[in-house]
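Posting for a labmate who doesn't have an account.
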Amino acid sequence: MEIIAGVDEVGRGPLAGPVVAAAVILDPANPIEGLKDSKKLSAVKRETLSEIIQKQSMSYAFGEASVEEIDALNILQASLLAMQRAVNNLLITPTKILIDGNRCPNLSIPAEAIIKGDQKIPAISAASIIAKVKRDAMLVDYDKQFPGYGFAIHKGYPTKQHLLALEELGPTIIHRKSFGPVCRLLNEYR
């Protein structure tokens, strides 16, 4: 029997926080309605679907790459590492991995990269949804630890509000030092 895991990551573009990946093995006998690219769903719908996915899937797992790993490796390599960790954390070993994007992490299981896979493959959509919900929750927590930056609102993305807060307050330990706006500010402080 073929066991397919869908894999996706979120958080490549933000200036702060880890990159989070998820791997999901859906139960063919228990399909989930409404799966699509997490960016095309409201926050409420994502959270509802995330709970359903975690209850009804055969297996799911997360993987992360830290801010330090992003700065040391680069965002692409850190994203691939997070995806690899998500697959390795699955309790069921899949026979095939379908990954959103154009690159596959280093895996011992056959894998295929599918551009816009989060719009085409339900298991990848499911991974996209639970990864986004998990990362968004992390940024809401960071908002409490680092008030004034607006992490709960922009989730670390380089919005006008975030860039102004960076200018006024300076970078935090969760900011990616290798990313342009943060790197420029750090150089100004030297």
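Reply:
Got it, the structure tokens are right above this. The domain at 4-189 is CATH 3.30.420.10 (Nucleotidyltransferase; domain 5).
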